[in-house]
Design a protein that fits this description.
The structure is a homodimer. By secondary structure, chain A is mainly alpha-helical. Chain A contains 11 helices and no strands. Chain A has 2 domains: 50 residues, Arc Repressor Mutant, subunit A (Orthogonal Bundle), CATH 1.10.10; 154 residues, Orthogonal Bundle (Tetracycline Repressor, domain 2). In chain A, α4 packs across α6, α5 packs antiparallel against α7 and α8 packs antiparallel against α9.
């Protein structure tokens, strides 16, 4: 394994350990010592990648951003739905995404700047809504930045409510219900009529992404 | 002061102290010892009212419920708006409400049942929406329970986003933006046209309530 590959892998090991420790204790009570023990790396290795607990938390927070890119759709409203439904699916299945979302909502993490995920999600959704607007999918009164803020904020709460009430069992249903309440006031009915809002949309998009990725990285045989 | 009054006052002192400690450290890291010190009461007094840290947290969580009742309005949609805008105002101004909301979103509080506020808010808003429906204020497709869940969940997230990005400075604006996105898909346009969604609605309702309360409890002079 090349030196660089090894460094990337170590960084990932440390981030995964940090995610587990932050998820268990919250930001305030988490300690670098416990993250070290959980990761099973040397102090030197950890400090090579992260200078402080805050940097570790920022690393976990920004892991969500890796997943914001999706294959483009002709219908930009569908892309908005897909990016949200996929995130809901990842929240249920990927501990790193879960840790990031919880950190961003950790209102006790007073000295941690938690604005990153809100702002990045805001950027991505604003961009998609602007494209949707440019191709005439949106109702005339819509301000993409404002709608994007509402989507990001309300999603954060709906996932927290789903976690508190059902341990994420009803997450896809709650997210769909949110979108069904919001989208008719944002998107033309004629566009909405062909948007897939099914409960399995998240896993469908995830599978599509994983398969594309496998094809790209597959080594041709023979 | 009668014995009962003193007990009520002590209970309130303890709850306020608990709210401050939970808000500072989160549920997991908070200790009864620190709550005791913060409240300045005896161990016996504390345990007379609350048997455990969980009971203290449930006490803080349920303090929000005190504030759910509002003077009735002819327009039930306005009552929905008022209860939400008033809650936003209290969140900015009342540390106990703030501590309760944060506890309910504390995803690290694994062994604390945080469903109470979500369910109580759900009940209240479902009830109001059912009344609104009965008097013909709502669009025909609306299911009050489902819309109520969306309102409760999305409010929780919008407040968290406002806290993370602006320390609650933009809370009223974000909540109004949320309602402007949701209500046109729930309420008849003819009803919405006369609903007050102004940014100062929360403080207006609060003042109205406080004045009513003062009149009721005022001791006649002379």
């Amino acid at each position: 394994m090349a030196k660089q590959d090894r460094a990337i892998r170590t960084r990932q090991t440390i981030l995964s350990a940090a995610a587990r420790v932050f998820e268990k204790h919250g930001y305030q009570a988490a300690t670098i010592i416990e993250i070290l023990a959980e990761a099973g790396v040397t102090k030197g290795a950890l400090y090579f990648h992260f200078q402080s607990k805050e940097e570790l938390a920022q690393g976990v927070l920004s892991e969500q951003d890796q997943h914001l890119a999706l294959p483009g759709r002709i219908c930009k409203t569908q892309e908005v739905v897909d990016v949200i439904m996929l995130h809901a699916y990842r929240l249920q299945t990927d501990p790193m995404v879960r840790a990031g979302v919880r950190l961003s909502l950790d209102q006790q993490a007073h000295d941690l700047d938690r604005s990153g995920p809100f702002l990045n999600w805001g950027e991505v959704l604003t961009g998609l809504l602007e494209k949707a607007q440019a191709q005439g999918e949106l109702l005339p009164h819509v301000v993409p930045r404002e709608t994007s803020d509402v989507l990001v904020g309300s999603f954060a709460g709906v996932q927290a409510m789903s976690q508190a009430l059902s341990g994420y069992q009803d997450l896809a249903e709650r997210v769909r219900s949110l979108l069904r309440h919001l989208l008719p006031n944002v998107v033309l009915a004629s566009v909405l009529a062909s948007v897939d809002l099914s409960l399995t949309r998240g896993v469908t998009v995830f599978t599509e992404l994983t398969e594309t990725h496998d094809e790209e990285t597959a080594v041709p045989v023979g």
